[in-house]
Amino acid sequence: MVKAYRTAITTHKEGKPYVRGYDLTKLAGKNSFASTIYLILKGGLPDEKSEKMLDAILTISIDHGVEPASVVAARNIYSGGSPVQAAVAGGILAFGEYHGGAIEAAMENFKAYLERGPEALIADFKAQDKRVAGFGHKLYDKDPRTKRLVELAREFGFDGKYVKLAQSVEDEFAKAEKKLPLNVDGIIAALLLEMGFDSKVGKGIFIIARTPGLVAHVVEEATREKPVRRLSEEDVEYDGPAPRE
Ligand SMILES: CC(C)(COP(=O)(O)OP(=O)(O)OC[C@H]1O[C@@H](n2cnc3c(N)ncnc32)[C@H](O)[C@@H]1OP(=O)(O)O)[C@@H](O)C(=O)NCCC(=O)NCCS
To answer: What value does the CA radius of gyration of the chain take, rounded to a whole number of Å?
Structure first.
């Protein structure tokens, strides 16, 4: 008989929880969190280099200041009186195409243009007036997180064809008027492909990495700030009609 759900992820046997066949009570105390994330997402334990690469990806993405839309959303939701879980979930909901949500699309693009190359990718997106996921940043001409992840990719043996394609797209953009750096989402996309991850994990990897940052911001909001954040009148430009009858 077909059962309502099927899963290859977790089960319980003889009073113990197993993830992908490994006893969690034995992994705890022995296996790192990054390695266990790799296990649950990919189905098997990583070798040492894969574990270090994934750990670096998660570490470098843990937070990026109070300014991004997700943190502003999370802190404001808490300040209105909603509970921690609502504030953190609200922050996650702010991950979208432009902030924190570009990894999956970048993975798809890198796969689709691996043969055709960077010029074709940029030309096609330009023709459709679409932004290329994984490139551009509000703060950086060169994303320092990308630079570090590329160094580590070399060290751990993940600077393969997808990393090279991502870098060649950045080089191609550098010839254009507006420099669009390979951003952290873009390099993570290339690295996840090098590591053999499915593109459907792309958004999830960023959620996993950034949630500790969101929790920290919400806890700081709870413990250091007064309720109800409110912009001041000087922060707002009103350009609607003047008072009228
Ligand atoms: C991250 C991002 C929002 C930063 O944008 P920004 O530096 O403020 O740039 P603007 O929104 O002012 O855009 C300036 C110009 O560059 C273009 N542009 C910006 N990012 C682009 C991209 N990734 N691909 C193609 N064109 C891009 C815009 O279309 C705009 O063109 P125009 O002047 O002809 O209208 C933007 O680069 C982007 O959307 N990137 C793709 C999504 C992404 O990777 N997000 C993850 C960020 S870590």
So the answer is: 21
